[in-house]
Amino acid sequence: MGSGVHSLGYFLFEVSDLDAWDRFLTKVLGVERGEALGEGLVPYRTDERAARILLRQGPADDLIALGFEVPSEQTLHEVTTHVREAGHSANPARASEAKARGVEGFVRTFEPGGVAVELFYGPVIADTPFRRERVAAGFVTGEQGVGHLALRANSIAETRSYFEQVLSFGLSDHIRCTLPGDFKVDITFLHVNPRHHTVALGSGLPKHLHHFMLQMGSLDDVGATLDRAFASNVRVVQGLGRHPNDEMVTFYCVTPSGFECEVGWGGRTVDDSTWEPTTYNRISDWGHQSPYRRPPKRPTEMGEQP
Ligand SMILES: [Fe+2]
């Protein structure tokens, strides 16, 4: 810890269907569309800030950039020096780019997989409070940042080293197991604040992003969001379940760009003074089953189930 990186401030996705994303974010997740800040990006809000999720129109349908917050312009200079000393490029962005993201300034560098890491300071606070129309208890952000993500790593060792050495993340834990079909799972979880993990690293993924996670303030909000997902024909790929490491109750659904969104509640936080990384041999303690794994059975067949 201690590089000055506080938290994950925002996600920037390039999406081919802005309208579908707008419906998904606002009608299903209960995220609020923000006031346009600048050219080329559409901002969405999960709290008092002007932008927590940014969309730009384009063919990638993937994660383009992660905004990591530092507390001040002075800290940004120090972190930039550290990034360059570690052998990475770090280039100040144009004022218009910062404006469009709702930040005072940022420096662009890249993680080993090629996703832009935008180190920023000075988040813009919106003129109006966040409207909790669909998510009554709101989203859990603050010192824990906007949420977490599962990122593709070509080499977990190399990407882990980048986050630990360059951005001063710490190891939370690992999940290593083999799923039915001989599917090997090897995920490394990293934190940069009390949120159990801000970044999870996996390999063999088709896109940079496997999923991003937004945490809600109540289990009722997560359940209501799951209902809205089904009602909106959003594909739910894993129903409610609890992960053993962060202990969050979550479900997963597919975004209009094909990568997934995890919606969660609860979970534990990391205290670095006492934390000891461990390795878990399972992805979930319960649940996270596919609702579509078996076709629904007619009542007359119920007694024949194993
Ligand atoms: Fe997750």
Annotate the secondary structure layout.
Blueprint: E1 7-15, H1 18-29, E2 32-33, E3 42-45, E4 53-57, E5 62-69, H2 73-85, E6 91-92, H3 95-101, E7 103-110, E8 116-123, E9 148-152, H4 156-166, E10 170-179, E11 183-191, E12 199-202, E13 209-216, H5 219-231, E14 236-242, E15 248-254, E16 260-266, E17 278-280, E18 286-287
Parallel strand pairs: 1-4, 5-8, 9-12, 10-17, 13-16
Antiparallel strand pairs: 1-5, 2-3, 3-4, 6-7, 7-8, 9-13, 10-11, 11-12, 14-15, 14-18, 15-16
Helix pairs in contact: 1-5
The protein binds fe (ii) ion.
* CATH topology descriptor of the largest domain: 2,3-Dihydroxybiphenyl 1,2-Dioxygenase, domain 1
Low-confidence stretches: none
Largest sheet: 10 strands, mixed
CATH top level assignment of the largest domain: Alpha Beta
Range of strand content: 35-45%
First CA to last CA: what distance? Answer: 51 Å
Give the names of the bound compounds: fe (ii) ion
Helical residues, percent: 10-25%
Number of domains: 2
CATH 4th-level superfamily of the largest domain: 2,3-Dihydroxybiphenyl 1,2-Dioxygenase, domain 1
H/E series, N to C?
A: EHEEEEHEHEEEHEEEEHEEEEE
The overall pLDDT average reads 95
Tell me which CATH architecture of the largest domain applies here. Roll
Radius of gyration: 19 Å
Task: Say how many strands there are.
Answer: 18
* Structure classification: alpha+beta
Shape field:
globular
* Strand order in the largest sheet: 17-10-11-12-9-13-16-15-14-18
**Number of H/I helices:** 5
How would you explain this protein's 3D organization?
The model has no long low-confidence stretch (mean pLDDT 95). This protein has 306 residues and is of the alpha+beta class. The chain is globular, with a radius of gyration of 19 Å. The chain has two domains: 117 residues, 2,3-Dihydroxybiphenyl 1,2-Dioxygenase, domain 1 (Roll); 146 residues, 2,3-Dihydroxybiphenyl 1,2-Dioxygenase, domain 1 (Roll), CATH 3.10.180.10. The longest helix is centred in the N-terminal third of the chain and has 13 residues. It contains five helices and 18 strands. The protein binds fe (ii) ion.
